[in-house]
Amino acid sequence: MQKFSVDKSGFYGEFGGAYIPEILHRCVTELQDSYLEILESDAFREEFNRLLRDYVGRPSPLYLSGYLSARHGCRVYLKREDLNHTGAHKINNTIGQILVAKQLGKSRIIAETGAGQHGVATATVCALMQMECIVYMGKTDVERQAVNVRKMEMLGATVVPVTSGNMTLKDATNEAIRDWCCNPANTHYIIGSTVGPHPYPDMVARLQSVISEEIGRQLMEKENRPSPDYLVACVGGGSNAAGTIYHFLAEERVKIVLAEAGGKGIHSGESAATIQIGTEGIIHGCKTLVMQTEDGQITEPYSISAGLDYPGIGPIHAHLAKTRRAKVVAVNDDEALRAGLALTRNEGIIPALESAHAIAALDKIRFNQGDLVVLTLSGRGDKDLETYFKINDIIE
Known about the structure:
Layout (H helix, E strand, L loop, with lengths): L10 E2 L2 E2 L8 H15 L2 H15 L5 E3 L1 H7 L2 E6 L9 H14 L4 E6 L3 H13 L2 E7 H6 L1 H9 L3 E5 L6 H14 L4 E3 L10 H9 L1 H14 L6 E5 L4 H7 L9 E9 L10 H4 L1 E5 L2 E5 L24 H8 L3 E7 H15 L5 H9 L10 E6 L7 H11 L1
Parallel strand pairs: 4-14, 5-6, 5-8, 6-7, 9-10, 9-14, 10-13
Antiparallel strand pairs: 1-2, 3-4, 11-12
Helix pairs in contact: 2-4, 4-5, 4-9, 5-7, 9-11, 10-11, 14-15, 14-16
Pfam family, one: PALP
Pathway: Amino-acid biosynthesis; L-tryptophan biosynthesis; L-tryptophan from chorismate: step 5/5
Protein name: Tryptophan synthase beta chain
């Protein structure tokens, strides 16, 4: 896996690094110097694994979808991260990071959130550990994800609506970084995806790698083989995708398909397909692909899915795309909505709109009859019901 792993400076090939204001240098350096030692310690692994098992409910099931298998003429398994406590993969990362924060002696947690799942997961672990929690969320997302906002508040978190910019995930992240700059000594910033300055992309990928670790074991049990032919996941910042592929990166026979949000079309001006239309730049502390103007001003992304409308991409995914280790497809809003509703009608599983992008991506791949496909269902669609209701009413 060496060519796809991070180097000592936090780069995956030419993407990554830590481009940070001077006031955060001490915090980020402290994390860089300690995170691997903490994550690899016996005490951390014991507590992390215990909480994943007894609190989160892992391992999450690997479910053979009769509907998707028949539709695509191969065996399609769903990795059911939607069945985790809090309803998504995000809890894997927040459990790990709050244990790191405790080890570093931090007493205050901040986070950003778009769809609200990372915010809920952060508020949940802060309630578990009885730590102060502040979650920054764009005002646009506060309005379209009202249930998750109420959940966070019920869990004891303070939700701060952000009114700058497009009032979505990028702007929430900007405000969280400003908070961190003002409170560096006692605050740990739990970043929710494989973005931000090193070591966050690597740390989040390692914490989410429990997904691919389980996939390998579960395929041995169900199919008597340790790896699939295809791995499929949606990608915004890229945490569930990184976790899905982590232990299979060195196996070049395993094909990787990433589904990003095409919005209303990648050339419509209303899209979040960063890998398709982005260029190299720096966003939120790392060098990666960024949606930006010719003079480097970040452009506003759009997606019907609040968890995918980020104008950057995790540096590991930028590297995988550039080296062609991963195939990246853009899925537009209508394709995702119809794929999500079809899974609901045919399997009784309501996927998050983020996950629906991955399901729709299956239609863009030509599979062979004997192929074994694993698609990570990153979250459940409770938060997206109002959006689903609208298209369901139109169809009926």
